[in-house]
């Protein structure tokens, strides 16, 4: 009768191999659980508030085109030839920014709201033209984002690619743009923001061009830059969502279309 290499090995070797096998299976199982948990967490998004989304869909001045990974808002009236590629905040459905940019689009600027890879902008690897090519009639582009989306937007703000950067309750992760002289930048934040706090915004301004337009909305919280309800860790707003959106529009409309 023949014996296998496993059977002929000393007992301690067989025990060692069994232990390694058990450890290997356990590690794979733990990794599978961790990946599954991460995917569940990343896809547990903040959805758009139905009433705000319905108001945009019913607005005759705006056309909303939801393509799954992007939401495109176009003016139905006169087009100013400008566009904004906007990256959603972490785990926020792009539809939640339709209400934010309703007036911007109604005034003539096309807005492409991006749903980043796995709903996390820091994982997004598509080039900017993957979004700008969706609206070839637009001649001049800005890029921007909310929260984590704004951090990623800073990396797209290359000279010659875009001429403006829009940061909503956000900031750049480094000072690569600080010395830029051909990029218009606006930073809009809220005084009640518990995530991108006023102190964090103030500290980040040194990373932006000296010509940056800084707008602070008194009483606005982090989540009010979208329309998706309450966000854990945020501050308590002292103004209504409608008042916050009005202030955001008052800042962005003239910035995006200075003519």
From TrEMBL:
The keyword Transmembrane helix applies. One of its GO terms (molecular function) is hydrolase activity. The chain crosses the membrane at residues 20-41. It comes from the Bacteria. Keywords: Hydrolase, Membrane, Transmembrane, Transmembrane helix. InterPro entries: AB_hydrolase_5, AB_hydrolase_fold. Residues 84-245 form the Alpha/beta hydrolase fold-5 domain. The keyword rRNA-binding does not apply. This is Alpha/beta hydrolase. The lineage of its organism: Bacteria, Bacillati, Actinomycetota, Actinomycetes, Micrococcales.
């Amino acid at each position: 009768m023949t014996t296998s290499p496993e059977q002929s090995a000393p007992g301690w070797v067989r025990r060692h191999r069994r232990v390694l096998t058990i450890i290997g299976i356990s590690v794979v199982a733990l990794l599978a659980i961790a990946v599954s948990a991460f995917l569940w967490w990343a896809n547990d998004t903040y959805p758009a508030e139905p009433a705000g989304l319905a108001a945009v869909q019913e607005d005759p001045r705006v056309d909303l085109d939801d393509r799954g990974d992007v939401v495109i808002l176009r003016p139905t009236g006169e087009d100013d030839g400008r566009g904004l590629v906007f990256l959603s905040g972490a785990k926020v459905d792009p539809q939640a920014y339709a209400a934010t940019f309703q007036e911007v689009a109604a005034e003539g600027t096309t807005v492409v709201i991006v749903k980043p890879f796995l709903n996390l902008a820091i994982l997004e690897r598509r080039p900017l033209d993957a979004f700008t090519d969706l609206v070839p009639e637009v001649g001049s582009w800005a890029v921007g984002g909310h929260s984590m989306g704004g951090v990623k937007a800073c990396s797209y703000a290359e000279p010659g690619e875009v001429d403006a950067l829009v940061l909503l309750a956000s900031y750049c992760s480094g000072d690569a743009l600080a010395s830029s002289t051909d990029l218009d930048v606006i930073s809009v934040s809220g005084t009640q923001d518990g995530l991108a706090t006023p102190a964090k915004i103030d500290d980040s301004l040194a990373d932006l061009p000296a010509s940056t337009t800084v707008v602070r909305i008194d009483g606005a919280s982090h989540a009010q830059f979208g329309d998706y309800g309450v966000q854990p860790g945020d501050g308590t707003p002292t103004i209504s969502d409608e008042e916050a959106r009005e202030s955001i529009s008052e800042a962005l409309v003239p910035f995006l279309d200075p003519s």
